[in-house]
Design brief:
Elements (H helix, E strand, L loop, with lengths): L19 H27 L4 H13 L9
Length: 72
């Protein structure tokens, strides 16, 4: 089971993000991503994909995300 969103999000300065709107958006995004991941995972399992394989595919997707701050 995917845990609920964090109550504190670490900021660049080491302190938690304090803006309520940012915290709300981060929590909303977390819940949306959790639902999409759950749906994709369950669909793959029900279609016969090996569990460890779909976990690796999903983890590799996250690991491959490009930072919007990285100079291209």
């Amino acid at each position: 089971m995917i845990p609920p969103p964090p109550t504190a999000w670490p900021g660049l300065d080491g302190n938690a993000v304090g803006c309520r709107e940012k915290i709300k958006m981060l929590a909303d995004n977390y819940r949306e991503v959790a639902q999409v991941l759950t749906d994709a995972f369950e669909d793959a399992i029900l279609m016969g994909v090996e569990e460890a394989a779909i976990r690796k595919v999903l983890a590799d997707m996250v690991a491959g995300l490009d930072s919007p701050k990285r100079v291209r």
